[in-house]
Each structure stands twice: as C-alpha cells, then as structure tokens.
Design brief:
Chain lengths: 269, 285
C-alpha cells in the first residue's frame, strides 16, 4: 500500500489546494467489496486533473464521494475548507448521459438546478445567464428546442451549461463524452478546456482514455484495481492551451507510455 | 484475377429493376378494406337471418337492428328517458373514473415511492388484483344499496388497479443518472417526485388510465345488472329479459360510443401532457 506522492512542481508557484482527500476508504458492505483504499489527492485551484483506471476500479465511486453523493467509509473530504457531507452547490457534475429532461426546453433544463435550489423566481432571473452559457457552448438559438431535437453532442453541451449555471468552483466529470463518437469527442474536449480556462474552474475528469487524460490534464491520477487506489499522480508538463496536434509530440508519447506501464502494473498486482 | 464477360466491354447493362410482389388483399386501400369487410359481415348477417338459419330472437336482422339504433338515437337526441338513463350511467362512470384516478395515483405513489409501500402494501394489492373483481359486485350492492353509489364503488374498484400499477411503474421508471443528477442538485424527495419522477412516469400513468377508462364502463354496467337502478345497464337487462334483442344491440352500441369517448378524451389529454414522449404513446410497449 503506497500513499500517492503529492505533485511537486518546479517553476510556477503552486496554486493552493482547493480540494483534498485524505485516507479515503470506501467499502460496499453489502458485497464486502473494498472499492477504494487509502486514497489521497489534492486538486489545486484552477487545475485540470484526470483519474484513469480500468473499468470497475472505483473511479465513479471516487467521484461520487467527492460530489457528496455517497459517504466514504473512512477518511476526510474537504472542499474549500469545508468538509463535504452531502451535495453542494459549489460542485458541478456531469455524467456519461446528458440526462436532459424531455418535457423541458433546453433553457429550462439548464435552469433546473436554480429552479430546484432557489425556486421559480430565481430561475427566471437567471435566464440571461443561461443564454450566455448557451452562447458559450455554441448552442445559441436552441433555447426553446426540446432535447429530442438535439444531437448527442449538442445534448452534452446543454449538460455543460446546466452544470455551469450554479457557478460551481469544482467540476466533476464522469466520462462525460465517452458516449459520443470520436470526432465529436475530441472537439468537445477542446471546448471543455477552453471553458475551464475561461472560467478558471477546477476540473476533475474520469476517463479511461490515456490520450484524453494526457491532453487535457495538469495531473493524471493513475488508479489500480482491487482495491481501488491511486498508484501515481503524473504531472503533465505540456504548454497551455493544449491542442490536438500535441498528440504527435515526443513528450506526449512518453507520458502515454509511462501511464500505460503504470496501468498494466496496477492490473497485475 | 480475370473475369469473363460474355457481353464484352461496353456491352449494354441489362436493367435489373424488378417489381416487389404485394398480394392482392394487402393492396386494398385502408378505407376500402374497412368498408368492404363491414359490408361483407352485414351481408352474411342479413342472409343468416333472412334464410332463418339463425332464429330472429337470437340474432335480429340488420334492418331491425338499424331501426332500433335510429330509435334509441332519436330518443337520446330528443332528450327522452334514455338520455336520462345514459346520464345516470355517465355519472357513475365519471365519478368512478375520478375516484379511481385519485386513489390509484395516491396508492401508486405510496407503493412506488416508499419502501414501506413497496414491501408491505404492494403484496396485498397484488393479492386483491388477482381476484376476479366483478365477483365483488353483489357485496357492493349489499353494502351500498341500489342507488348509484354501489355502481360507482364497483367501477372504481375495477379500474383503480391499472392506474395504481401504472403510477408505481412510472415512478420506478426514472433512471439512475436522472436520480443522481437530482441528488447533485440537492433536490428534496418531494422535489424529485414532482419535477422528475412524476413527469417521467406520466406515459405509464396514462397507459393505466386508458385501461381504466374501459374498465370503469364494465364496472358500472355490471353494477347496474346486479343492482338495478335507472342506468343504461338496467335498460339492457330489461330489454334482454324481454328477448328484445335489437334493443340490446342498439344500447350496447351507444354504450361503446361512450366508452370510446372516454378513451379518446384520455388519449387527447395524454397527447397534450406527454407531448415529449416518443410518438406520444404509452410506455412499456
Ligand atoms: N452502490 C454500489 N453498491 C455495491 N457495489 C458497488 C456500488 N457502486 C459500485 N460498486 C462496485 O464498486 C466497484 C467500483 O465501481 P465504479 O466506481 O463504478 O468503477 P468505475 O467507475 O471505475 O468503472 C465495482 O466493482 C462496482 O461493482
Ligand atoms: Mg464509472
């Protein structure tokens, strides 16, 4: 059992950690399954991090704990100085499915989190913010469209807007684009980077694509399975903004190989 | 690789357009098919009665039946005693349907939303649902007497279960990601129910409502058969006991029009309310 080393960076001064997990364990008692064991991680403010690991290694569990959707069995989860003991409005979340509600127009879908938390009036007051977000993700003019009229990529963009409408400090993304085809997915990843940079958001992405993790992240947390644990935090030292053609650079290739080796060790042990 | 071509290069390519066969009977246009079949049935009916193969008491001739249809129709339109009877039955049906909807949705929410309902209430409901509910009719008459309340009770009893099951199934049809999403938004149980589970379950609820809209008719009429009163069912019973079969046929026809109107109204409301559902139809195929 190894405690993941905290990221050490040369050069740029370290932004303060906004999110920290200490010795987090998760045991699913019903199945007596150790889903997570001694997970430690820090997210620095404004950074983009990913967690990568084989399917079933506990990535979604980790994200749910971070989102306050489920309690850890042991350990502490602290965001912005306050312990996470349930869903919070400074946490935005996105899943593989866009999960737009077909009986609501796109803009009403986006305003739903406000409607739920602050009521109808507050939602009405946020219409302009919602429109600005639609603009930001290139969905201008689709306010009144119903989800059935949107393509898969457009639906995920609307889901991005819905996540951003509460102006969360941290974005937790559980394989948000993995249901999209590859071309759309690459494009959406670049959009995601742009949005995160513009809003100086702290992002945490679950993925099982090494390339996606490397191209987007400042730090890639590599997870091993059974029990789920962090093997290593790999710092990615590529300039920002990242572009898709960086995948051909030698540094990119070295990161990919390093992470692939870590993953195959993780699955053997 | 080489290939041999008998036509040689540049030879004209023979057209291989071919006609897909459709059998003659399937190529009849829809309105014609419906009318044609109806005509054939009436013709067979006519000959069966005209030749005396079937006794007139058992099966009246098409013409006699038509006369009764006109007679009953005239009585209804001119506000005769049959309209009063129809109104009685309609009241039973409508009150029964509203009660069944309230009780069905209420119990459906209890069963679909709470663990207690699912664990404790559902088994009893299933047990009752498997009973032949019409068999309770004499009991309702004994309990509630011969006025419309016993018919309303039976109509409600018969139609409450499809609504209940539809509601419970609807509430359980919300998918995991939608539930997770509502949790991340910090939604209360009530908010999750109102803003997500209920609308998501509406297609199922309407499937139940449509079945109920037909069951409620059967319940009311059965109640009238057994409990008398002044409704359409009583008129049917009297006409049948007098072997006045054409009248029975005509009354049943108007009764089915009432049922059709109920079903149509529910479908219309569904289309307005559940406009977003795939082709606006029922859930769960
Ligand atoms: N609610 C739960 N109850 C019991 N076991 C669960 C639950 N959620 C996930 N698991 C189990 O925990 C392990 C990790 O799951 P998950 O976090 O979804 O993995 P990943 O997202 O990396 O694919 C899996 O073996 C899964 O079956
Ligand atoms: Mg997962």
């Amino acid at each position: 059992m190894m405690v993941a080393p905290l990221v050490k960076e040369e050069g740029a001064p370290l932004a303060p950690s906004i999110y920290s997990l200490r010795s987090v364990d998760k045991i699913y008692a019903r199945r007596s399954l150790v889903a997570l064991e001694n997970v430690n991680l820090d997210l620095r403010k404004g950074s983009f991090s990913s967690v990568i690991g084989s399917s079933g290694c506990g990535k979604s569990t980790l994200l749910k704990i971070m989102a306050g959707l489920t309690s850890p069995t042991a350990g502490s989860v602290v965001l912005a100085g306050k312990p996470v003991m349930g869903p919070r409005r400074d946490i935005g979340m996105m899943f593989q499915q866009a999960t737009l509600f077909p009986w609501l127009t796109t803009i009403d879908n986006i305003l739903l989190p406000i409607r739920i938390r602050d009521g109808k009036m507050a939602a009405r007051a946020k219409v302009h913010d919602a429109q600005a977000l639609l603009d930001l993700v290139g969905l201008k003019g689709f306010e009144k469209a119903y989800p059935s009229e949107l393509s898969g990529g457009m639906a995920q963009r609307a889901a991005i807007c819905r996540m951003l409408i509460t102006e969360p400090a941290v974005l937790l993304l559980d394989e948000p684009f993995s249901a999209l085809d590859e071309l759309v997915r690459d494009f959406m990843n670049m959009e995601l980077q742009r949005i995160c940079m513009e809003r100086e958001a702290t992002a945490f992405l679950v993925t099982h694509s090494i390339a996606e993790a490397v191209i987007l992240s400042d730090t890639v947390f590599v997870m091993g399975a059974r029990p789920g644990r962090i093997i290593e935090a790999v710092h990615i030292d590529l300039p920002r903004p990242r572009t898709l053609d960086m995948v051909t650079s030698p540094a990119f290739g070295r990161y990919v190989i390093h992470i692939r080796n870590l993953l195959s060790q993780g699955s053997q042990s | 690789m080489s290939t041999f071509d008998a036509h040689g290069p540049g030879a004209p390519v023979e057209s291989t357009v071919w006609k897909e066969e459709i059998s003659l009977i399937d190529s009849i246009p829809r309105p014609l098919a419906i009318l044609g079949l109806g005509l054939i049935i009436v013709l067979i009916w006519h000959f069966a009665t005209a030749t005396g193969v079937v006794s007139n008491i058992i099966l009246p001739s098409p013409l006699e039946t038509w006369r009764e249809i006109v007679f009953v129709g005239t009585n209804l339109v001119t506000g005769g005693y049959m309209l009063a009877a129809l109104w009685v039955t309609m009241q039973e049906v409508l009150i029964g349907f509203v009660l069944a909807t309230l009780i069905g949705v209420g119990l459906g929410v209890l069963v679909g939303e709470t663990r207690f309902g699912e664990r404790a209430v559902m088994p009893y409901l299933i047990a009752i649902d498997t009973m032949p509910k019409i068999a309770f009719a004499p009991l309702f008459v004994a309990w509630l007497g011969f006025d419309i309340s016993s018919k309303v009770a039976l109509a409600t009893f018969v139609s409450v279960f499809p609504i209940l099951v539809g509601t419970a199934a609807g509430l359980n049809s919300a998918d995991r990601s939608a539930l997770n999403l509502f949790r991340t938004m910090g939604a209360s149980r009530w908010q999750t129910l109102v803003h997500m589970k209920m609308p998501a379950g509406l297609p199922h609820v309407f499937t139940g409502l449509k079945i109920a809209s037909l069951g409620v008719m059967a319940g009311a009429i059965t109640g009238e058969f057994l409990g008398g009163g002044k409704g359409f069912g009583e008129m049917i019973r009297v006409a049948a006991s007098q072997l006045h079969t054409p009248r029975v046929f005509a009354l049943i026809l108007y009764l089915s029009l009432l049922g059709l109107a109920m079903f149509g109204t529910v479908s219309l409301i569904q289309r307005k309310l559940v406009f977003w559902h795939k082709d606006g139809r029922d859930a769960g195929e």
